[in-house]
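call fold(seq) -> tokens
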Amino acid sequence: MASGGSFSLFGISHFAALAVVGVVVLAAAMGRRNLLAQAPPALRWPLGALVLAQFAAWYAVYRIPQGFSPARDLPLQLCDINQLLLVAYLWRPRAGLFDLLYYWVLSASSLALLLPDLEQDFPSVAYASLFGSHGLTLAILVHLAFGRGRGPVPASAGRAWAWLLGYGIVLVPVDLLLGANYLYLLELPALPGPLAALVPPAPWHWLLVAAFMYLLFRGMQAIAPPAPLDPDPDEKRQA
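ret:
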């Protein structure tokens, strides 16, 4: 795939990608009217394989040929972790794992689509991978949550936030050792002018980010479907 020019935040190509992802996510949210709702157990394995295949293809086609760097290319960003956890859930459904994925995928994928940390524009591999991978994980999660009415338990927002903080604490020495910026702990990506002016410099920005994520998780909890009283039979057996 050819390399694009410099990516422009909220430019034409950005809005085009958001429109395509929006249509796919809306279709996924329709849930019981689409094919996925008719045979969810049969489609979980190929869906998980699809997520895993595009994850592996990113490294095989782009990252490794470009020169793999531990400071940049380890699968430690939250969206990387989300993809692997989503595969684990699709292949072996567990209620507690879904509760975590609901908050992490909806927040991280949405923020990554709205404020992508991207240098190359359409039709680059990086452009296609970023919007394709985040759009896919978001669509699957939205289908499970809103299409099939599979919501998290009420107390899960605080737990998901605490797990996120714990993961950030674990990554601090990794970032310092490798000279990396996983989870954007040492520096936030480029933000639009009005937002950048509101964010304090590193490492103090994480106080604001932690507060923002807490409020975001609470808001997501308020709009979530209720946790099912009678969960999926596969999930019930393996929860």
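The first helix runs from residue 12 to 29.
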